[in-house]
Write the structure tokens for this entry.
Amino acid sequence: MPPLLEVRNLSKTYKRSAKFVSSGYRQSLGPINFTLERGKTLSIIGESGSGKSSLAKIIAGLIPSTGGEILVNGAPVSKMSRQKRCQSIRMIFQDPSNSLNPKTKISRILSAPLRLNTNFNDTEIKQQIKIILSLVELLPDYLEFYPHMLSPVQQHQVALARAMILNPDVILADEILATLDISLRFKIVNLLLKIQEKTDVSFIFVAHNMNLVRHMSDQVLVMNHGLIVENSSTDEIFNSPQTGISRHLLQNHQPDYRK
């Protein structure tokens, strides 16, 4: 049985600017290889510029890859329709206050993906929204609100609801907790884990906070200069890192780390 998500030799190159003397292409990412099982959480860590966000955006289909393959349940996403890919892989962006349209009510924010990517009628759309609101622990009253009327945590819950509305296989989240206070971060993390337990969805997190990574992850990828330098279970990364980059990240983000 294939893994839920498989990334094979994924790469991204960019053409060099004409301003520079050198010409041709520069390798920005890859080749990248890893797998993710259903119902598991993968965190991607690395210094700024290591390629974490680029990798997440390529998997989500926001930017094209130059080479390689992404497969979900053994099927290449390159051969999927746009609707099928949107249903299978969803993304949550860093700051909901910017990613949620301030002029659109929550009801429309949540119904739009269903109208674009499914054949649901109005009754089915309302029923799916009701199910997802319950899943993310929001009351139906919020459907008539605009994003700016919500607290930061509630905005994150709406962003999560929008990601979950199509019952995806994988959700990618790029530093979604960075704008929250630490106590609120753990509230959202625990909600995510609760949702995962109920739905068996898989998560990929781009993250810097090592305490949160350790709390929520089953697997960790360590990236450096566009490459994976370590890929192992969370316990193995934290208890016995094999590379200097991994040790450096842990030392920088965990002052009590001494391995």
Observations:
- The longest helix spans residues 182-199.
- The domain at 5-10+26-100+168-253 is CATH 3.40.50.300 (Rossmann fold).
- The CA atoms of residues 89 and 103 lie 26 Å apart.
- The chain is about 40% helix and 25% strand.
